[in-house]
Amino acid sequence: MDYRPGYHLTADEVEALGTDTVVLPIGSTEQHGPHLPVSTDVLIGGILSRRIAKELGAFVTPVIPISTCREMMGKKGSVFMKPETCYQMLFDICESLVEQGYKKIVLFQSHGGIFVIPPLVRQFNATHNPDACLCKVEIMNLMGDARAEGLLDTEVCMHADEYETSVLLAEYPELVHMDRAVDCTPDVPREFLNYGSIFRFSPSGVWGCPTAATAEKGKALIDSGVRSAVKYIREVFSLMEQKGTFGYSDF
What we know:
This protein has 251 residues and is α/β, with parallel strands linked by helices. The chain contains seven helices and six strands; from the N terminus they run H-E-H-E-H-E-H-E-H-E-H-E-H.
């Protein structure tokens, strides 16, 4: 059967899917250096979440295009909301999915800087298990798996880097300006973004080496990311289905 994203279906067609699983991708609209569009995280979220949903037989929603990205302040084009707003928005969306009968929700995080998501996942599961469970898949973890598989040539992949640039070269080459790509590996750890915007440490707004990117790598990275994500999701759902009650708690 040909696969169409869930958001391209009619309501009756969504109902006919008969699935209890939904993939909810969340990205960000933010600067990605001089060579990538501000929609980079939205586009990558769409690429991977559609493939993941197909493997799981799940309904997939459109990518939420705006989240938290104050670490990108300084150049126009980065759009953000308060962390507490993002938390409540995502919690409400997940509860609306549970109300419709979905029991397994995958939150696919294609922007690494949404730090309200881990406590959201814990709170949701602590209050909704065993009737529903929420699994988080973060793009940064998929980068680590890809490096372990030897698919990346550079050590640092965090923002507008070899990974993101390769994926867009594979799927949206017309949006990538490789002639403008510059490498930058700041000499501070990631958590320094709590103390200043990325431009304090990288004048270009890049954190990594996009000049190492190729479309061939991008295709391999997409396949690797889908494999890693689906394996992890199935492990999480299996755990949450089998763990049972301990004392007074189902969490």
